[in-house]
Design brief:
This protein has five helices and no strands. By secondary structure, the chain is mostly helical. Pfam families: GerE.
């Protein structure tokens, strides 16, 4: 996903808004850390982070970490 596509995605309202935790997890994905490290920072299990990541990906219409990071940057989350 290019930055232009990410920006275009932002212009279209999300069918479901991101939860506060989904926004936090998306911001964390932009750093060079594993899901385990994100989980430890947020005091939750790795499976909880995986579930939040999957939910956020579905809502913003991406399928990879790189696309999610581009979307998050365009949205000002990271």
């Amino acid at each position: 996903m290019s930055t232009i596509e990410a920006t275009r995605t932002l212009i279209t309202p999300l069918a479901e808004p991101l939860t506060r935790r989904e926004r936090v997890v998306l911001a964390e994905l932009s750093e060079d850390v594993t899901l385990e490290e994100i989980a430890a920072r947020l005091w939750v299990s790795r499976n909880t982070v995986k579930s939040q990541v999957r939910s956020a990906y579905r809502k913003i219409g991406v399928s990879t970490r790189a696309e999610a990071v581009a979307w998050a940057r365009a949205a000002g989350l990271s």
